[in-house]
């Protein structure tokens, strides 16, 4: 994050804006350059996504049964 004036500390709003713009950046994944930890993180991420979707569908089905 760049400061507008030397020595000036960014306020909360400026920090949030910077964080949001950083999260919007695209990140490329290269399987050729990935190590074991990267591949394990990818597998765990996919498994977590599946659990979350299952939970969402289960909650939706339970609400419709009432």
From TrEMBL:
Q: Which domain of life is it from?
A: Bacteria
Q: Which InterPro entries match?
A: YfhD-like (IPR025435)
Q: What is this protein called?
A: YfhD-like protein
């Amino acid at each position: 994050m760049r400061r507008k004036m030397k020595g000036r500390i960014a306020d909360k709003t400026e920090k949030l804006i910077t964080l949001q713009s950083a999260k919007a950046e695209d990140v490329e994944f290269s399987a050729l350059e990935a190590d074991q930890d990267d591949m394990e993180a990818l597998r765990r991420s996919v498994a977590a996504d599946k659990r979350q979707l299952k939970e969402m569908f289960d909650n939706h089905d339970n609400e419709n049964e009432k």
